[in-house]
Amino acid sequence: MDNRMTVAFVGCGNFAKGFVPLFKAHPFVKKVYVCDLVAETAQKYAKAFHVEIIDTYEQVLANPNITCVANFTQRHIHADIVIRALKAGKHVYSAVPMASAVEECQEIVRLVKETGLTYLMGETCYYYPCAMFCRETYAAGKFGDFTYGASQYYHHIDSISYGKRPNEGGMPPLLYPTHSTGMILSAVHSYARKVVCFGYKDRTKDGRFETGKNQWDNEFSNQYVLMELANGGTARVTEARTFGWYKPSSYISALYGTQGGYEFSNAQHILVQSAWENDKEKVKLSDVSDYVNTDGMVENKHDADFKEKVANGEWQWNNVAAVQQKEMQRLPQAFETEPNGHMATHKLLVDDFCRAVFKKEMPVLNAWTAARYTIPGLVAIESAKQGGIPLDVPDCGDPPRIQRV
What is the pTM of this model? Predict the structure, then answer.
């Protein structure tokens, strides 16, 4: 009996094209379909990737041979696509964010728990080298008890695909928080209990971040949130769409504990630890850049314009960092000739999902984890609207140890 999965891609935009070849190549996948509201777009995908088209999402849901939905639709409609798929008995791989409302996140968790289906939120930054390094170092006890950390996603609205779409360019930055929250929360294995948020009200008056100009009546182009975590520490997350930093830039800039800390700027990664020498406390500093930067960065670090190239995204797509190598070893051989992306994270995410479905395992970026990465941003939006008042963050709890089938 062939237990391999059949996957239908819903949404054939610019992002999905990096994932169709990976799903096609994975040994646990039997067949891939594509579906898009715009027939011409679906046809381009069918021709480029040699896959079949399904005309409507309703047909996807009704087709008993399709076991999985890969959701690559617009960010603010993810919940509708995912909830309908789960109710139709389909496993779901979804691009970020999980949903646009707390209640939607909770409903997805409820459905996954009720059905035993697999849900995975494809948060690339979970596998970013800085996040992996901080998880590894924290787990080894080198930071001690976590006290404070900061993570951020800087991406100017003019260089985002939805930035110029009518009624969509003014999306609240923290509606899309998981690149930042996913890194810092995964690094210290905790979740947010309370948030307080402020923001920058855009002054360009270009018809995006203005009341009455977008479907959220949102004025904030940048939002900054402090999160009180369950482990007693505090984390700061910044989601910025009008910083003078056009290229996408996601990273943990700082993480501190009672025994050590981590600091990152552009291409330099520093590990600091408390030490004693001659009965005096001192700081032991280690430059771990060659371990955390990608192989392309390490090979070209002596270039005169190295830092400027890094700031403009050079060597940050297919290149792999040393800290990622252990994870890369479990990838299927069929992936070796396939494209990667976003700090070499696409292959890891697709493999996570396919293994979880095929082997009936709980993926690390499951519905419960996705809710913990998404909900703090949604609550923080309300905090900013109300002038920065502290608000409690609902928690969906830990995932069950065993996935029901």
Answer: 0.96
